[in-house]
Design goal:
- The chain is mostly helical and 256 residues long.
- The protein contains 12 helices and no strands.
């Protein structure tokens, strides 16, 4: 039996939620389904992974980091709204930076380097799990092909990221002697960027999702994004925690 409450569905209920009700529905969904609850993340934060397993997480997560500016650029290309373009352009700068070596993507590669990974191999994404690559590409396609409202709503996982970042940084610093504050510097900027971005996106969704149909679409878009992040951790757990399931050609941690 599924222990989680059903997903809110204004369309099935035949009524429009108020902006506050929609806000609450989105937050309840994220609180239930955000990947902070995944067993792999619990192991990561508790210091129960080997260095090789942490390396596998960082290498695979880079695929997601690299997909973010691609999906943001896809959203910008679709809209005639200058305000929306200005907002999303800032996200591109956050990830790509204004110069080589700047931005979140470069900081993630510094994290990989701090974990003794080959940066060129990480950047190539060739050693990532197939499921990781498929999940990330599905997210890019979702933003490029679904409605603008759904594309914006899918970013609302950032409402919940400050809590997972705080847990991740404190847990990893306390439990792994192979990480340092410099290794985890990527997360410092996200503690301010993510809430700023999420607040704007949430306001946009509440302003533009007014009918039962559009509100249900926004809620399901957030569910889709939670599913993307969860699927990536399912793949990591299957490949690197359950022994013997690393697919051919994927990253193989060195023996401890």
């Amino acid at each position: 039996m599924n222990p989680f409450p059903p997903i809110p569905d204004p369309q099935a209920e035949g009524r429009s939620y108020s902006p506050d009700e929609l806000d609450n529905a989105l937050r309840r969904l994220g609180e239930q389904r955000y990947h902070v609850h995944h067993p792999f993340h619990r192991l990561l934060h508790a210091g129960e992974l080997t260095k090789g397993q942490v390396q596998a997480w960082a290498l695979n997560r880079y695929c997601y980091q690299a997909a973010i500016p691609r999906k943001d650029a896809a959203l910008i290309a679709r809209t005639d709204d200058p305000e929306l373009r200005r907002e999303w352009r800032r996200r591109l700068v956050d990830h790509d930076g204004d110069a080589p070596g700047d931005g979140g993507l470069a900081r993630w590669l510094k994290l990989a380097e701090g974990l003794d990974l080959d940066v060129a191999a990480v950047r190539s994404q060739e050693l990532a799990l197939p499921a990781t690559r498929f999940a990330c590409e599905a997210y890019v396609r979702f933003v490029a092909e679904r409605s603008l409202l759904e594309a914006v709503a899918s970013s609302l996982t950032e409402l919940f990221s400050p809590s997972i970042i705080s847990q991740r940084v404190s847990g990893m610093l306390a439990n792994y002697d192979f990480v340092s504050e410099a290794t985890l510097a990527y997360f410092n900027a996200r503690l301010t960027q993510a809430p700023r971005d999420a607040d704007w996106a949430l306001d946009y969704v509440k302003q533009h999702a007014r009918t039962p149909e559009t509100q249900t679409a926004a809620i399901r878009a957030l569910k889709f994004k939670c599913d993307v992040l969860w699927a990536m951790l399912d793949a990591l757990h299957h490949a690197y925690v359950a022994p013997g399931h690393v697919p051919p050609g994927a990253f193989e941690p060195e023996a401890a």
